[in-house]
Amino acid sequence: MTTLTQYLNNHSTNTAVNETIATITEVGKTIAQLLRRGALADILGEAGNQNVQGEEQKKLDVLANDLLLDALASNAHCAGVASEELDNSTPAHADGSLLVLFDPLDGSSNIDINMAVGTIFSILPYQRQGQISVDKDFLQAGNQQLAAGYLLYGTSTMLALTIANDVAMFSLDPDSGDYVLIEEKIQIDADTSEYSINSSNYRYWRAPMQQYIDELIDGEAGVRGRDFNTRWVAAMVGDVHRILCRGGLFTYPFDTKYAHKAGKLRLMYEANPMSLLIERAGGGATDAVNRILDIEPNDIHQRVPVVLGSKNEVAYVKDLHLQHAAK
Ligand code: F6P
Ligand code: MN
Domain of 275? Predict the structure, then answer.
């Protein structure tokens, strides 16, 4: 049996990163406990205010955000923290070597119906040690991430983590309070017959995405020559977890539903950490044209279309987009 602490010591010599992962995963235990008590802990329902994205905040969005922010602000390695729920980043210890970004509670619409939710995190190097961090310091491409991962609060609490080129999964043992390694060097099959998309947005998609989903629905009778199956958890953490477990394709594509947004998902809190996990597990991650991890951000709350998962299927979607662009 290998615990998270042992795994970190064996796989990474970066004490700052290791201790920061420990801080985040400790908070994860508290969030998991609150979720387990649900209505009894008075954590369900709306908080009564909107976040920077104009979305209604749930009580647990606010609670998870505050718990992570407080814990990371007390971590001397942390020079600054940025949260999906807050307008601006929060400076912490100027001498710290790391910046931490997080989506405190992913899939919030699942909270009140007792379904899977998660916490997503991304750790970047801090380039201006000794000076107070500002939003601009966070604007680094995803390929700069030192570590990334998520906590999935499902029927059990699990951690997926990537450091040092490997992807590993841990299960939280509710008796000992340890995260226990259950699988390492995770690799996803290149081919899949399972896909995740919110099809109710079909009319807002671009032509190549409509064509792609039409082909999958045609199944055996169409150009793909085989049947496909749909799964949609409505929490990105849940869908990405399934893909790390058994492959698949997840997309929240470009749509014209909200003209000023490039997609629904956030580059820095969602797309980048998930893309690092998926690529390290042998999969692909694109905005349908570019590699997500190479996108240079210009805003900490920037949105991006996301297509990620089994490598050949992601390449197929990208090809369709290239073919349409060439017409
Ligand atoms: O954080 C955004 C998010 O909740 C993702 O976790 C999830 O994949 C998606 O939005 C669900 O979107 P929709 O409600 O449009 O299906
Ligand atoms: Mn989210």
Answer: 194-326
